[in-house]
Design a protein that fits this description.
The protein is of the alpha/beta class. The chain has a single domain, classed as Spore Coat Polysaccharide Biosynthesis Protein SpsA, Chain A, CATH 3.90.550. Helices cover 42% and strands 16% of the residues. The protein has helices spanning 11-21, 38-48, 63-75, 96-104, 126-143, 159-164, 176-187, 211-226; strands spanning 2-4, 27-31, 52-56, 81-84, 109-113, 120-122, 155-158, 192-196, 198-200. Strand 1 (2-4), helix 1 and strand 2 (27-31) form a beta-alpha-beta unit. The longest helix has 18 residues, at 126-143. 41% of the residues are buried.
Length: 228
């Protein structure tokens, strides 16, 4: 699943990368009415390749809402492994086979992790690295968990994992959505595995991160703690 909003410059390259490393994968583009024509490009790509599907949403409601719509779409079909992946080429498609292997070896949820041994980030200034690592450390300490990369958005879910998660209760719209999903899986006693990835900062398009999204994630951690 690749959610998009104004990713015209990146989308086709991202899909090609997925199919280079996993030719059998189906790609669901979830577009929130991108004014730059991303949705129309996705439709053209889908018309030429039956491995590509497009879900058009009426408006931009945030990353979490887009993924929840994608989960619903995937669970209505017979997919056994469902991935989250950014459109901006920051998540390395070459890690997909390793994530599949981890799921097939018993993981219920596989996280592509920047902050475990062997992982890393390319193209970020020190300030942003500190912010990201600090956010994950903050979540880890407040929630009492061992996950190194709580805020990462490169994930592989088993179908059964999504079926067990209380998706209907998740209200987070921004990047805190990633924290909440991983925490809910841990609460259920599911086996969560982190594998190292190298995250590359986007070179085209604009980041969707904002102060309000970051603040939402900080406050969410305390809400999750007291909801145990």
């Amino acid at each position: 699943m690749i959610p998009t909003y104004n990713e015209l410059e990146n989308l086709e390259t991202a899909i090609k990368a997925v199919h280079e490393h996993s030719p059998v994968a189906h790609v669901l583009v979830i577009d929130d009415q991108s004014p730059d024509g991303t949705g129309e490009l996705a439709d053209r790509l889908a018309a030429k390749d039956d491995r590509i599907q497009v879900l058009h949403r009426a408006e931009k409601e945030g990353l979490g809402r887009a993924y929840l719509a994608g989960f619903q779409w995937a669970l209505a079909r017979d997919y056994e492994l469902i991935f989250e992946m950014d459109a901006d080429l920051s998540h390395p498609a070459e890690a997909i086979p390793r994530m599949v292997q981890a799921a097939e070896s018993g993981a219920d949820l596989v996280l592509g992790s920047r902050w475990v041994s062997g992982g890393g980030v390319i193209g970020w200034p020190l300030k942003r690295k500190v912010l990201s690592q600090g956010g994950s450390l903050y979540a880890r300490l407040i929630l009492g968990a061992t996950i190194k990369d709580f805020t990462g958005g490169f994930k592989c879910f088993k179908r059964e994992t999504l079926e067990r998660l209380p998706l209907e209760t998740i209200e987070t719209a921004g990047y805190g959505f990633q924290i909440e999903l991983t925490w809910r899986a841990l609460q259920l006693g599911l086996h969560v595995v982190e594998i190292p990835i190298t995250f590359t900062d986007r070179v085209a398009g604009l980041s969707k991160m904002s102060t309000s999204i970051f603040t939402e994630a900080l406050l969410l951690v305390w809400k999750l703690r007291w909801s145990r």
